[in-house]
User: Which sequence fits this backbone?
């Protein structure tokens, strides 16, 4: 039995409802969206934990709009989030990493005003080897009230990430953890499977000013820009700005690498390279939600020169170079990039 009493802690629904009371600009419809996301997360968590037993591992044989092999759990998670958010009545349309086009929620009213972009399962290449994976999501208000025009319109998604009203991620690891922000700080919750509820365990999360790890795929080193190379070379040496070299930690699941960076400090980089000249990670449902979270926790996120949250996507599947983490380390990397194009 978990060693706490429910009277001594707060569940996610209690927390969300309390925030709604505390913050007049929070609304019951955003509360409904967040509760739908939390429920979808619990369903996906169960699917992830049972995948090996329910022959849900492996590929479907298809490739998605990203040109990547689709895992059965990618499809499962995409369908769960699409369905749960679609029936909330608060969401007008969604963008998923797994679907080429944006898609309308099946239950909308004239009052539905949110759009949600999500990566239903991040770190898919790690599913079959039992390494932590996750879900990433961002909620924005639809850009304009267009009563007559087709409710699902790309315009609603092509907004800078600073206009998100909520963002978060879940990490399906040694425990299932739900981390989110509605613009008033970041809070983390762990799923207690015995009661089926997320319980507040990491209130008011803050990222350390600096850290002892850097996280990147060193295999791409030779195709990075000179500035990025100089920063990463510097991570491996001690010098004026750091007493000892940083350690490399790279899981290959963005959510896992980011969550470690949030808790312990450090920097995560997925720069542009020869294979991905515009960067590999997707702006709308990987970079922008995590940038929202990290800035709310005192951190920094850029594409090397511009703040991620200030970038307006041109397409719902735009990619971006991504540098995120402790502010001191991200600033150091940006300086190297600026001085050594
Ligand atoms: P996804 O599984 O949603 O496609 O995301 C995979 C991403 C991200 O999770 C991770 O940081 C990155 O791909 C790893 O890329 P490399 O294998 O090229 O290092
Ligand atoms: Mn991803
Ligand atoms: Mn994915």
Assistant:
């Amino acid at each position: 039995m978990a060693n706490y009493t429910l009277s001594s802690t707060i569940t996610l629904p209690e927390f969300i409802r309390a925030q709604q009371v505390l913050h007049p600009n929070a609304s019951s419809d955003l509360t409904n969206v967040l509760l739908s996301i939390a429920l979808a997360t619990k369903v996906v968590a169960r699917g992830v934990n049972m995948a090996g037993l329910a022959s849900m591992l492996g590929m479907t044989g298809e490739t998605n709009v990203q040109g990547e092999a689709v895992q059965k759990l990618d499809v499962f998670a995409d369908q769960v989030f699409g369905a749960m958010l679609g029936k909330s009545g608060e969401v007008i349309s969604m963008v998923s990493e797994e679907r080429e086009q944006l898609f309308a929620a099946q239950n909308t009213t004239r009052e539905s005003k949110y759009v949600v972009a999500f990566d239903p399962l991040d770190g898919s290449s790690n599913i079959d080897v039992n390494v932590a994976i996750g879900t990433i999501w961002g909620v924005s208000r639809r850009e304009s009230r267009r009563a007559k025009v087709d409710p699902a319109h790309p315009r609603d998604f092509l907004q800078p990430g600073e206009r998100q009203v909520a963002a978060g991620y879940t990490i399906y690891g040694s425990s299932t953890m739900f981390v989110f922000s509605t613009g008033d700080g970041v809070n983390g919750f762990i799923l207690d499977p015995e009661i089926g509820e997320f319980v507040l365990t990491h209130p008011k999360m803050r990222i350390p000013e600096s850290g002892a790890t850097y996280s990147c795929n060193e295999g791409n080193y030779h195709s990075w820009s000179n500035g990025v190379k100089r920063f990463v070379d510097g991570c491996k040496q001690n010098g004026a700005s750091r007493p000892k070299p940083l350690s490399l930690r790279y899981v290959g699941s963005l959510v896992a690498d980011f969550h470690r960076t949030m808790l312990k400090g450090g920097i995560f980089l997925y720069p542009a390279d020869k294979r991905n000249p515009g960067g590999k990670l997707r702006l709308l449902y990987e970079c922008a939600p995590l940038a929202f979270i990290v800035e709310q926790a005192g951190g920094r996120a850029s594409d090397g020169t511009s703040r991620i949250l200030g970038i307006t996507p041109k397409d719902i599947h735009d990619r971006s170079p991504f540098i995120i983490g402790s502010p001191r380390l991200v600033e150091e990397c940006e300086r190297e990039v600026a001085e050594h194009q």
User: Anything to note?
Assistant: The pocket of manganese (II) ion (ligand 2) is lined by residues 119, 122, 254, 286 (CB under 6 Å). DSSP finds seven helices and 17 strands in the chain.
